[in-house]
Specification:
The protein is mainly α. It is built from four helices and no strands. Helix 1 packs across helix 2, helix 1 runs parallel beside helix 3 and helix 3 runs antiparallel to helix 4. It binds zinc ion (ZN).
Length: 82
């Protein structure tokens, strides 16, 4: 279950909380692992979209909603792996 570790790193990376030390490790894994890359792209798109909406001020996505969304995406991701 090596990918589990990278899911954490992806979420930290997208929150801009990822340490440089782990960045190379994560990028290397993303280049090798299709599942994590797909997860990364989905998350990135979701975050970009919610930021766009936030800046347009047409709708605000509360932190609790985005956390909730992320949590559910992880569950879906885990189910697909089984
Ligand atoms: Zn992976």
């Amino acid at each position: 279950m090596k990918c589990e570790k990278y899911l954490e790193l992806i979420s930290m990376y997208l929150d801009k909380e990822l340490d440089r030390i782990f960045l190379d490790d994560l990028e290397e894994h993303l280049s090798l692992c299709e599942n994590c890359m797909a997860f990364f792209k989905t998350m990135k798109k979701t975050i970009t979209l919610s930021r766009t909406y936030y800046h347009m001020k047409c709708c605000k996505v509360p932190k609790s909603v985005s956390t909730h969304m992320f949590y559910h995406l992880r569950i879906i991701y885990k189910k697909e792996k089984i």
